[in-house]
Amino acid sequence: MERDAYIGLMSGTSMDGIDAALVSLSDQSVNLHATCTLPYPNELRQRLDRVSKNHGTPDEIGELDHLLGRLFGEAAKCVLEKGNFAAEDVAAIGSHGQTVRHQPKSQAPFSMQLGDPNLIVERTGIATVADFRRRDMAAGGQGAPLVPAFHRAFFGKAGRDRCIVNVGGIANFSWLPGDAPDEASGFDTGPGNALMDAWCLHHTGRHFDENGRWAAEGTINQALLSDMLSDGYFSQPSPKSTGKEKFNLKWVETVLARHKEVLPADVQRTLLELTVMTIAQQLPQSPDMHIYLCGGGVNNTQLFNELVRACAPRPVHSTEELGLDPQWVEATAFAWLARQTMLRQPGNLPKVTGAVGNRVLGAVYWP
Questions:
Q1: Domains of the chain from N-terminus onward
Q2: Which one of 216, 218, 251, 294 is CB 3.0 to 4.6 Å from 326, fit for a cystine?
Q3: Taking the model in full, what pTM does it have?
């Protein structure tokens, strides 16, 4: 009997920890058995942040690759134990790794994810698929976003226009037209939580603004918002992808230097509005579209409510209404991508990434 259980391991641009999901997958269904979140220790987060800013040495990058490989392995073991599954019950693990640098438009394009998959295999005894992005990039794509293929497979529905919006450190969306499933598309819209998190940490010492409470104390500074919205990335045509290489604290401070004496809480509220507007303004214009949110941003009440306002009259929901908890969509997506690889099926959408064609993604590390 073919094994249909897979583990997906995901750590996003927020660099806050690892999400692991143990799922059973068929061509059209997902059954979530167990989940686990493994937060990063503060020292590890700080080291990852330094490396992502090009301050790491080869020694440090190698050490982090090893440390993260061990942690990703522990996250996989955690969901095995919680789900009461044995290693032999699982067909494969899909590990996204931790992105520390994403440069899809440089003269020599690359995307670097750390978290040695050899260590995951050694710790679990399960075949592990990793390095998903570079095969797409070798074919001329940007290697991101990769989750729209999963969104199309599991959230697309004939006769229903849907848009899946993932608000992680960076925000992206998948457009799923109900009358043309082959026309699914999407791209990174820009900052999700990344700028709000960076500003909050800089001014309060907290890694994120819980429920957007600090932002709610502030007022949108329209001049600052307009200046931020003028960044060329937002008007750039797709395919496009971005990361904290561009949208980081230095970016905020560079723009803020042109706007004197803006209160910190007002900056936070303006950054929240920037996320809202850059998502809402770049979504498809279908009047019948339903919008479904996933990712860590769903837990920010202020952000969720402002997205509801900005996207009206089109309704905004959580992916919970489509049968998958918004916290676990991305981890599940990488379980599905691992399945695609093991079945030798493509995992990219060329219309999304810009690749010249469909490609089987990732490398398989065998036990």
A1: 5-143+328-365 (3.30.420.40), 147-314 (3.30.420.40)
A2: 294
A3: 0.94
